[in-house]
Amino acid sequence: MTRTLIAHLSPLPDGPVEVAGWVETVRDQKKVQFVILRDETGVVQLVNPATRDLGEDASDAERSAAALTETIGGLAHGTMVRVSGDLKHDERVKLGGLEVKIGSLTVESEALPETPIAEDSSLDKRLDWRFLDLRRPEANLIFRVQTTFEHALRTYFVDNDYIEIHTPKLMASASESRAELFELGYFEGTAYLAQSPQFFKQMAQPAGFGKVFEIAPAFRADPSFTSRHATEFTSIDAEISWVSSHEDVMRMHEEALAAAFGAVVAKRGAAIEEAFGVELAVPSVPFPRIPLAEARRIVAEGGYEIPRADGDLDPEAERRLSAWVKANHGSDFVFVTDYDSTIRPFYHMRHEGDASLTNSYDLLFNGVEISTGAQREHRVDVLIEQAREKGLEPEELEFYLDFFRYGVPPHGGFGMGLARVLMLMLGLSSIRETTYLFRGPTRLTP
Ligand code: AMO
């Protein structure tokens, strides 16, 4: 008989079934035993009439029933078992109105009797035992939501004629700030882990690919221990040709997000509300757009002083701006646009006629930055000048600068952290919860 997933038991008629999963609890009573069995889809109650204290003249059937009783009585939490039995619908059973009467039970893999984590374990301890932590249905749901979200994004990109690319994660130079660069020995020389597919997704533009996307790891040697930073994270990147400004990028970005949220709400909305108490809505587009200068004003008028008046919004300012946007525009999302060129990388295009501002944006969702996007500078002479201004040596960037010497369409794109989107979507407090295996300054295992 083939195994039935626990969530698929309910519509089946009473009769023989096989289920498999891990033991949550055993209630071993004198005359009857109950096992709560969980698999990746749900829980079901198993029942076995106990057979004990056999006399000398017990039959073979009685002896095997007694052996089954003993096995069940000794099952530790987490033990993986396969069970054949009889499904019976019974309204009196609190757990889903059904139970399986055990016919035979095979222990496939025993668990040690003491589970190393409990419900009240610290997040760090849970991450030490991530494979056990992930057995929680809420944790399982996070990654089902992630799957739906990513799938919907991919569908959006594919339906809109994007090409999916896979760019190398070993690089000869930095692509973002040099301060956050992982360096590693590479035969006789040095290589760096890609901080972003920035240069290579841009390369797809002179390559004539038009629209590209990538969902892949990015690495940052960021020593911080905040709830939103990891040293390795999954980055969702897109880059498109023939944009007139960052407005074209934002339009594509919000459309992709609305489509992906739509899919998550439709497929997982009810489960999300039940597990996390979050009533997820499909965001309406366009998202509000607020130039950074105005965002700073709004935050200042609200009584908060940004640490560096000409710098980026800090986390508190992001929270305050998002609260203002929610109150005044009813949106959980906001594009903060037109960043000063002093706080943007050399490859961002600057405003025509005002080089102090860039054609760029950050996207905030529920108070936290989830993405950066921009139109890129595609005029090679301007690009070289901007690189020099940022203290970069054009010689180090020759391979990148070559992309702009043989014809390149105006282009732009964005990078977005997957774990951050999920954290904010589900109202969780750290990307450690929404990353399958978190990597930080002091965490390289499991
Ligand atoms: P940026 O550096 O702003 O832009 O990164 C884009 C998005 O990636 C996520 N992110 C991170 N997530 C977890 N841990 C980190 N250490 C981390 N660093 C970044 C955030 C962030 O908004 N090349 C540009 C994008 C572009 O212009 O296309 C870039 O990488 O969600």
Short characterization:
The chain is α+β, with helices and mostly antiparallel strands and 446 residues long. The chain contains 12 helices and 18 strands. The strands form 4 sheets. An 8-stranded mixed sheet has the order 6-10-11-18-17-16-13-12.
Could you describe the 3D structure shown?
By secondary structure, this protein is α+β, with helices and mostly antiparallel strands. It contains 12 helices and 18 strands. The chain has 2 domains: 6-109, Nucleic acid-binding proteins (OB fold (Dihydrolipoamide Acetyltransferase, E2P)), CATH 2.40.50.140; 127-425, Bira Bifunctional Protein, Domain 2 (BirA Bifunctional Protein, domain 2, 2-Layer Sandwich). A hairpin with a 2-residue loop joins strand 16 and strand 17 (368-375). Helix 4 (137-159) runs antiparallel to helix 6 (246-276). The longest helix is centred in the middle third of the chain and has 31 residues, at 246-276. The protein is elongated and about 100 Å long.
Supply the key terms.
OB fold (Dihydrolipoamide Acetyltransferase, E2P), eight-stranded mixed sheet, binds aspartyl-adenosine-5'-monophosphate, elongated, alpha+beta, 2 domains, BirA Bifunctional Protein, domain 2, 27% strand, five-stranded mixed β-barrel, 446 residues
Q: Topology of this protein?
A:
Blueprint lengths: L14 E14 L3 E8 L2 E8 L10 H14 L6 E10 L8 E12 L13 H6 L1 H4 L3 H23 L3 E2 L5 E2 L11 E4 L2 E5 L4 H6 L7 E9 L12 E10 L4 H31 L12 E3 H10 L13 H15 L3 E5 L12 E2 L2 E5 L1 E6 L2 E8 L4 H10 L8 H5 L8 E7 H8 L5 H4 L12
Parallel strand pairs: 3-5, 6-10, 12-13
Antiparallel strand pairs: 1-2, 1-4, 2-3, 4-5, 7-9, 8-9, 10-11, 11-18, 13-16, 14-15, 16-17, 17-18
Helix pairs in contact: 4-6, 7-8
The site of aspartyl-adenosine-5'-monophosphate has 22 residues, from strand 11, strand 17 and strand 18.
